[in-house]
Each structure stands twice: as structure tokens, then as C-alpha cells.
Write a structure and sequence with these properties.
Largest sheet: 6 strands, parallel
CATH superfamily of the largest domain: NAD(P)-binding Rossmann-like Domain
Number of helices: 20
Number of domains: 2
Number of strands: 14
Shape: elongated
Bound molecules: nicotinamide-adenine-dinucleotide
């Protein structure tokens, strides 16, 4: 099948590469010419395990092609996927300017019947706005307005495991409204996704509005589990309980299940924060309120500062002269994505309080340097105290504390004796609960996880920590 994917980012590139891998003829188009030039020079603008190899294979076999020419890209595909970004606007709602710009471009170039599939995460009603934008361009050219059908096909892949998620999805949600084109469009999309449904039917058909809402509901539910466990972890710290025991205890209940029950420094990335905000705003636009999701967001905002406050509780508000090591910068392992990564808030605030930071991430160094330069553009003197180094152990040299922010696999089993010998003070503040408190205690390393019963946490009494974590001092 001939497929066009508009937007060569995390979703678009994976979608294009995977459809090409299945034998389709794929054209990826992006408005960023540098990205297209890099892809055409066999480079890869993002880090996603296995993607570079998959793209190279399909390029050399002539199944994937990169262009910045929207006209030829629209001509090529019978099915055109929109996979451009939908970032947050000031009020939290999704910014649809890229999606609607693509719709306008499709309308300007469309000559024959196309199925326009929206893969971007968009609020309910966006498919209708895409349809209207295409129609108005067609009418300007005096063309029929039934030359296309807009379908919703939200994407559920996870960065870091995107290829596997795309190739072996839990489900494929397709929103298609009844109308003149229903049967041929249904048939075409069934053919396109046939190889995913061979073992058992994974496609869930529904109307467009329900498909659009399904994506937000899924992300809000997952974010809810994270914030819920973070609250239980913070309570565990106060009560001297171990959240990891609680996690296993509740996860064994089949109604709950084990997934997404890990406490940590809060969720980040390009989806959960913006999608929860957009859902809250969608409800407000309808005169309603998402009370649970609003609380989820609130808990997450404060959870992103938990490690920061632990440092301040330990060392006081003035961190001048301290050297802190940070392991992990990307918002999660196996990606270089720094969008809304908790590390940005933690590092920025530590630097602003005078600390020197030596940080390491296996793949996100470049992205992190750019993101933090942006966050600290008004504080060059603070930024100058940040060093992003090439090895985890190097980061911990002479450190007064080590903060674990992202749970990369390579951090799971460090040589603790070596680590202890390198650090000025053997203190680990673990935002991802990678280690067993009693093991580190035994090794003479002071350790504090999130909600893990351990020496540091037990020294606190509820009276000492009664002040809400986000209340002081100001976090920026
Ligand atoms: N990243 C994820 O894990 C993930 C998962 C599921 C869904 N989503 C959703 O998918 C969408 C895309 O996310 P992403 O992370 O891939 O974004 P991204 O920022 O990585 O990529 C978007 C790409 O679109 C391009 N673009 C913007 N306007 C364009 C235009 N007019 N014409 C052509 N190209 C244009 C940009 O240059 C960029 O390369 C978002 O709505 C997101 O919420 C993302």
C-alpha cells in the first residue's frame, strides 16, 4: 500500500519505518528541512532503539523515502497519516496549529481520493476541524468536498520501546464515522492493519469522537496510577512502611495488576503532562471538571521536586560549594527525549541554589544540554556550574550526594565499593528506587529511596515533614 506520514518525529518515524518494514511504500514528509536532510544522509534525528537500523534497511530496499515536498507526499499516499506535535498552549489546551496547517496543505495538494488518518493526540472534535480545513481548501480550488475521509487512529506506543509497541500493539483504535465512504475506507484500513490482526483481532472500531477521547483517557488513567503510587510512597515515608512491599501486595490483585505501580520522581515526557492538561481543559470548555485528573497533575508537579527537597533537607538551602552527581537526564530510559523531564526541574533548582552538578545520561547528553541551556538562559552563571560527563562513575567523583533520576538499566548494578570510594560523602538519593536500602546500609552508603523504609527516612518524624513538600522553598 502507498502511505504518506506527515511529521518525522518519534511517532511519525516509527510509524513510517514499521509500515515500510511490512512491505508498504512509505513517504515521510517533514517541514523541518534539516531533519529531512539528516534522514537522507542516513542520520537519525532521535534516539529510539532499533529505529536507525530499520530505517536504513528499508531505505536501501527502496520502501521508505524522505521529503520536505508536501505536494509530492500528498500525491504519493492513498493513506495519509498526520503525526505532528500537539504541544500544550498557555492554558493547557492542545495547540492544534501544526495539525491544522497540515490539513490545509493536504487540501491545497489533494487531487484524488485519500484517507487522512490522524495519529497525533488531539482533543475531541479535531477530526471535524481537520475535515473543515481540507474542505475549505478544496472548495477554493473548485473541487468536490468528498474527495477524502478523516479517520482517528491514536497512537499508543511508548518511547524507548516504540518499535515493539507498534509492531505488537495491545490494540489498534480506529475511529471512523458512518457515511458514504464508510465501507471502502473500513476495508482499506482493515487491509493496512491486517498483519497486526493475524493472531487475534486487535482492532477496536468506534466513532471518531470516542477514538479521540480514548487516547486521553488512557494517558490520564496511566498518569493516575503513577501519582497514586507516589502519594502512597510519600505516606510510606512518613509511616515507616515500604512502598515496594505495598506495590507487590496490591499488584497481585488481578483487578489492579502489576503495571504502572512504581513510585518515583514523577512522570514527564511529551505525553502524560500535556495530555492530562489538555483533558482538564477540554472538560472546562464543556463546563465540567476533571477533578481526579487535576489532582493527578497537582501531585505530579510536587513529586518532581521531591529529590530537590531531600537535598535541601540534608544540606540546607544554600548549596554553594557542594558537588552533586546526577544519573539519568531523559524523562525515561531508552530515549533522548527531554520534554518535561523531572531532571530539568531538579537540576535547574539545584544550580540556582549554588550547587555544582556533574550529570550523566547514556544517550540524552546533547538534548539535555540544549534543554537546560534554555531553562537557564537568564542564569548563565548557574548553567556554568553544570557539567555533563561521559560516564556515570566520572559524574560521581568527589560528589557530596548522588541523585538517581532516570532508571537506565546500566545504573542497576554499579560497583558500590568503587562508587563509595569516589564520592566525597557516600549518600544516594534514589528517585527511582533502584537499590535495596538494607544492601546499601550494609555497605556504609547512606541511602534514601522514594517511600522505602530506610535509615534516612526513619530519622524523620511526621512533625519534621509536616510542611508540604512543594511549599518551601520556591521552586522554579
Ligand atoms: N512521543 C510519543 O511517545 C507519543 C506517543 C503517542 C502519541 N504521541 C502523539 O503523537 C504526536 C507527535 O508526537 P511526536 O513525539 O512524534 O512529536 P515530535 O515533535 O517528535 O515530531 C513532530 C514532527 O512534526 C513535524 N512537523 C510539524 N509541523 C509540520 C508540518 N506542517 N508539516 C510537516 N511536518 C511538520 C516536526 O518538524 C516534527 O519533526 C503528538 O500529538 C503526540 O502527543 C506521541
Amino acid at each position: 500500500m502507498k502511505i504518506t506520514v506527515v511529521g518525522a518525529g518519534y511517532v511519525g518515524l516509527v510509524t513510517g519505518a514499521c509500515f515500510a518494514e511490512l512491505g508498504n511504500q512509505v513517504w515521510c514528509v517533514d517541514s523541518n528541512p534539516e531533519k529531512i536532510a539528516l534522514l537522507n544522509a542516513a542520520g537519525m534525528p532521535i534516539y529510539e532503539p532499533g529505529l536507525k537500523e530499520m530505517v536504513a534497511r528499508n531505505r536501501s530496499e527502496g520502501r521508505i523515502h524522505f521529503t520536505s515536498d508536501m505536494g509530492e507526499a500528498v500525491d504519493h499516499g492513498d493513506v495519509i497519516f498526520i503525526a505532528v506535535g500537539t504541544p500544550s498552549q498557555e492554558d493547557g489546551s492542545a495547540d492544534l496549529q501544526h495539525v491544522l496547517a497540515v490539513a490545509g496543505q493536504i487540501g491545497r495538494h489533494l487531487k484524488s481520493f485519500k484517507i487522512v488518518v490522524n495519529k497525533s493526540t488531539v482533543p475531541v472534535g479535531t477530526a471535524y476541524r481537520v475535515q473543515t480545513a481540507i474542505e475549505s481548501e478544496l472548495l477554493k480550488r473548485g473541487m468536490r468536498d468528498n474527495l477524502f475521509e478523516v479517520v482517528s487512529n491514536p497512537e499508543f506506543l511508548k518511547e524507548g520501546a516504540a518499535i515493539d509497541d507498534f509492531m505488537r500493539p495491545d490494540r489498534i483504535v480506529i475511529g471512523l464515522d458512518t457515511g458514504d465512504n464508510y465501507i471502502p475506507v473500513h476495508h482499506k484500513l482493515e487491509q493496512l492493519y491486517a498483519s497486526f490482526n493475524r493472531h487475534h483481532a486487535r482492532t477496536i472500531w468506534m466513532d471518531v469522537r470516542s477514538a479521540e477521547l480514548t487516547k486521553y483517557a488512557a494517558n490520564a488513567m496511566l498518569a493516575t496510577r503513577i501519582s497514586f503510587m507516589n502519594e502512597i510512597a510519600n505516606l510510606s515515608d512518613l509511616l515507616g512502611a515500604d512502598v515496594d512491599c505495598v506495590r507487590r501486595g496490591i499488584g497481585a490483585d488481578q483487578r489492579i495488576g502489576h503495571g504502572f505501580l512504581y513510585a518515583g520522581t514523577g512522570y514527564g515526557g511529551s505525553c502524560f503532562p500535556k495530555d492530562t492538561r489538555a483533558l482538564i481543559q477540554t472538560a472546562l470548555d464543556c463546563g465540567s471538571q476533571m477533578k481526579v485528573v487535576s489532582a493527578v497533575e497537582h501531585v505530579n508537579d510536587s513529586q518532581k521536586t521531591v529529590l530537590l527537597h531531600r537535598v535541601l533537607q540534608y544540606f540546607g538551602n544554600d548549596l554553594t560549594g557542594l558537588k552533586l552527581a546526577v544519573w539519568g537526564l531523559a524523562f525515561k530510559p531508552n530515549t533522548d527525549d527531554m520534554r518535561e523531564a523531572p531532571s530539568r526541574i531538579i537540576i535547574k533548582n539545584l544550580l540556582l541554589r549554588g550547587a555544582h552538578i556533574s550529570a550523566f545520561d547514556p544517550v540524552a547528553s546533547h538534548e539535555a544540554q540544549m534543554a537546560l541551556a534554555l531553562d537557564l538562559q537568564d542564569h548563565p552563571e548557574a548553567l556554568a556550574r553544570l557539567q555533563i560527563v561521559d560516564a556515570a562513575m566520572q559524574a560521581s567523583d568527589d560528589a557530596d550526594a548522588l541523585l538517581i533520576v532516570t532508571e537506565w538499566k546500566t545504573f542497576h548494578h554499579p560497583d558500590f565499593e568503587d562508587l563509595k570510594a569516589r564520592m566525597r560523602r557516600p549518600l544516594i538519593l534514589d528517585g527511582r528506587n533502584l537499590y535495596e536500602p538494607h544492601v546499601l546500609e550494609h555497605l556504609g552508603i547512606a541511602y534514601q529511596g522514594i517511600g522505602r523504609r530506610n535509615a534516612l527516612a526513619l530519622q524523620w518524624s511526621p512533625e519534621q515533614v509536616q510542611e508540604p513538600i512543594s511549599a518551601s522553598p520556591a521552586v522554579v
